[in-house]
Amino acid sequence: MPETSPTTASDSPITASDSVTLKADAAEARTPEADAPEADAAEKRATETAFWDALYNDSDRVWSGLPNHALVREAGGLTPGRALDLGCGEGADAIWLALEGWQVTGVDISRTALDRAERHAADKGVDGDRIDWQRHDLATSFPAGPFDLVSAHFLHSPGDLPREAVLRRAAATVAPGGVLLVVGHAGWPAWAVDPDHDVHFPTPQEVFAALELPEEEWELLVSETYERPAARPDGTMGTRRDNTLKVRRLRTGG
Ligand SMILES: C[S@@+](CC[C@H](N)C(=O)[O-])C[C@H]1O[C@@H](n2cnc3c(N)ncnc32)[C@H](O)[C@@H]1O
């Protein structure tokens, strides 16, 4: 499933067949008692956690270990402060931020991913108190802010992730003067096998609209779709289209 040599942190695709497996697993796990709404919701969240833990347990390394191109480009010029990395996976972005001088909170639904991220940080000589690794299912809980940078790179899931609500909550934790950076794929890679054409990849304009930011409190800095280098599964180089949205909070509402 993961590409053999991805060139950016999250080039490993979530395929249509993963999505089907996830739904089938959830259906199989359902019992009559679980039809109550709360049990159903809890089961959904457990399925989501199990999916991501299984992905990370299946391989010693899922992503490349390199920070995302867009993070380096967009956060490289910012003054370090408190950063939050949402869906931090194996920690490459959080580690890069810590090495740049940020005090980082790295959040993921998968305990396996977080344990691995913590080991990678230690291997890279990052002080233990520089990154606070927190397990949250962002559908149900969120780390306490405020933050000077909130970064969400490829916060996609083939299962059940209320992404727009999570991103609105993320915006609410940005301190005045701080930045929210949302980077996502703009479509399936050309080499995707049997891609699900019903999947909609939101444009940066759609992400911006969904954030519902009060105009007088926020400044739009970047809203773009672009191609970047990405490794194909056979290790040769291709490209992928991604989206970046970057907004700065000017002030909080009065
Ligand atoms: C496509 S990966 C991207 C990982 C990393 N940001 C990167 O760029 O390499 C999506 C990440 O989001 C995490 N994730 C998915 N759903 C989540 C949720 N509900 N709460 C917290 N993390 C979640 C997954 O475990 C996974 O590590």
Shape field: globular
The percent of residues in helical segments reads: 25-40%
Classify the secondary structure makeup into a structural class: alpha/beta
Which residues sit in consecutive blocks of at least 5 with pLDDT less than 50?
1-9, 11-31
- What series of H and E elements makes up the topology? HHHEHEHEEHEHEE
Number of domains: 1
Number of helices: 7
What Rg is obtained from the alpha carbons, in whole angstroms? 18 Å
- Known CATH architecture: 3-Layer(aba) Sandwich
The H-level CATH homologous superfamily, spelled out, is Vaccinia Virus protein VP39
Q: Please summarize the sheet with the most strands.
A: 7 strands, mixed
**Ligands present:** S-adenosylmethionine
Average pLDDT number: 87
The strand count comes to 7
Biggest sheet: strands side by side, in what order? Answer: 3-2-1-4-5-7-6
- Distance from N terminus to C terminus (CA atoms, Å) equals 48 Å
Portion in strands? 15-25%
Enter the CATH topology name. Rossmann fold
How is this structure best described in words?
With 254 residues, the chain is α/β, with parallel strands linked by helices. It has one domain: Rossmann fold (3-Layer(aba) Sandwich). 32% of the residues lie in helices and 24% in strands. The chain is built from seven helices and seven strands. The chain has helices at 16-29, 37-57, 69-75, 92-99, 111-123, 163-172, 204-211, and strands spanning 82-86, 103-108, 131-135, 147-153, 174-185, 218-231, 237-249. Strands 3-2-1-4-5-7-6 form a seven-stranded mixed beta sheet, with helices on both faces. Helix 1 packs across helix 2. The N and C termini lie far apart (48 Å). Bound molecules: S-adenosylmethionine. S-adenosylmethionine is lined by residues 9-10, 48, 52, 63, 68, 87-89, 107-110, 113, 136-139, 153-157, 161.
